């Protein structure tokens, strides 16, 4: 039995495969999570948009499939926006439509076989039902790997960031009505480029302590992540409405240094808050994880902010939306100190060991003895990462939700997400200072 491995506060699908979050949007008090799913099984395929909602980002209700694959088209990743001004003309009455931009992956049966292009669907009932636009696709480059549109409202109009995945490039487009798009600029390759680039996001944040604001470009890559396999990086810079320009010397940072955090994107229509969710898995072994009746979960929702590091560079800080009913452990490791946290089952088995070494500026997660680790040779059992520059003590928060562990250090300047598959719930914590 694997029921004890299903998280209670990280969203999981009832009985299907799941990967990237899609179409994150906040509407009328509900947080909508759309996601890549196979509605017909627990393996990747038949890609469609699943749908779940939450009033608080912690308690989720799964709904019917929102956008289902068809004979000619698989529905790959994309985004949803609230078209407040009805620029698309798709609204009815006074209620603004929700507009989804998604990637059409055309099958061999399609006249467009072998290509990917961006298509549109819309909803006038708060995201519960969707209609595909008759003129799809709305943006085509005659490319096999043009995908994952993330759309946002800007002073210059609607802006889309998407990827030419194999070229390791982010391509930017602008539209006045979400239907007709013009190319603006291209970014990359830069930073980590071992794997294909996917699932971009671009947003502006104030820099805490000032001055001004900065723009954050997030992009995931299918291989070459910080712990092996897939991962997500981000760049900080400026966006002038046409071009994203990273700060001098910025070649990217990891959004999460663990093995199980991918395709993180942010919600639309959240006011001044910027809230992100990622897929808590890894392409290297996601298809083999030992949960045979469902597959994978999302991360906790994280509110992100920008703060200047000791060197003066803006760095993302992430803070989870936290429930009170999960196992949580807070540590403060003194300057130069070393602390080990061991989490086990009630009877002391299946240890998960986290070591925070403030003297060596290093954090290590050892999951080599924490339950099932043999299901894939690509499942890393020891994860190590440098702690970013700090002065003095290191604060750490560890959150455990069945098979997902999230670590937040230095007030969220470093995060580490990892899956574990113990034989029973991890309920016991022991702390040792060395």
TrEMBL record:
InterPro entries: ConA-like_dom_sf, Glyco_hydro_32, Glyco_hydro_32_AS, Glyco_hydro_32_C, Glyco_hydro_32_N, Glyco_hydro_beta-prop_sf. Residues 10-318 form the Glycosyl hydrolase family 32 N-terminal domain. Transmembrane segments: none annotated. Residues 346-431 form the Glycosyl hydrolase family 32 C-terminal domain. Keywords: Glycosidase, Hydrolase. It comes from the Bacteria. The keyword Hydrolase applies. Pfam families: Glyco_hydro_32C, Glyco_hydro_32N. Belongs to the glycosyl hydrolase 32 family. This is Beta-fructosidase levanase/invertase.
């Amino acid at each position: 039995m694997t029921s004890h491995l299903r998280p209670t506060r990280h969203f999981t699908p009832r009985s299907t495969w799941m990967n990237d979050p899609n179409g994150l949007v906040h509407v009328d008090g509900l947080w909508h999570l759309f996601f890549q799913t196979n509605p017909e099984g627990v393996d990747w395929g038949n890609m469609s948009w699943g749908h779940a909602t939450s009033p608080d980002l912690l308690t989720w209700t799964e709904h019917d499939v929102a956008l289902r694959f068809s004979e000619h088209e698989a529905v790959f990743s994309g985004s949803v926006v609230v078209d407040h001004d009805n620029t698309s003309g798709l609204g009815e009455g006074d209620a603004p439509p929700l507009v989804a931009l998604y990637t059409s992956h055309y099958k061999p049966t399609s006249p467009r076989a072998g290509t990917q292009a961006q298509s549109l669907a819309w909803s006038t009932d708060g995201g519960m039902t969707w209609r595909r636009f008759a003129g799809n696709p709305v943006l085509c480059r005659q490319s096999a790997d043009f995908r994952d549109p993330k759309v946002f409202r800007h002073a210059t109009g609607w802006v889309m960031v998407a990827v030419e995945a194999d070229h390791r490039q982010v391509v930017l487009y602008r539209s006045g009505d979400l239907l007709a798009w013009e190319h603006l600029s291209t970014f990359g390759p830069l930073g980590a480029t071992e794997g294909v680039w996917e699932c971009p996001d671009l947003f502006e944040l104030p820099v805490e302590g000032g001055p001004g604001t900065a723009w954050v470009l997030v992009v995931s890559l299918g291989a070459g992540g910080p712990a092996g396999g897939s991962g997500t990086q981000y760049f900080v810079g400026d966006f002038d409405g046409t071009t994203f320009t990273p700060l001098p010397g910025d070649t990217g940072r990891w959004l999460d240094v663990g093995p199980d955090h991918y395709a993180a994107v942010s919600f639309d229509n959240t006011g001044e808050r910027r809230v992100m969710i990622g897929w808590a898995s890894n392409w290297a072994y996601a298809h083999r994880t030992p949960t045979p009746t469902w597959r994978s979960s999302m991360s906790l929702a994280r509110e992100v902010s920008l703060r200047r590091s000791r060197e003066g560079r803006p760095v993302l800080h992430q803070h989870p939306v936290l429930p009170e009913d999960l196992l949580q452990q807070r540590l403060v490791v003194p300057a130069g100190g070393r602390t080990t946290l061991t989490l086990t089952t009630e009877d002391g088995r299946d240890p998960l060991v986290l070591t925070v070494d403030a003297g060596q500026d290093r954090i290590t997660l050892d999951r080599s003895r924490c339950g099932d680790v043999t299901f894939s040779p690509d499942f890393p059992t020891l994860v190590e990462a440098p702690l970013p520059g700090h002065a003095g003590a290191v604060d750490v928060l560890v959150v455990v939700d069945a098979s997902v562990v999230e670590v937040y250090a230095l007030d969220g300047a470093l995060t580490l997400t990892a899956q574990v598959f113990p034989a029973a719930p991890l309920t016991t914590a022991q702390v040792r200072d060395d």
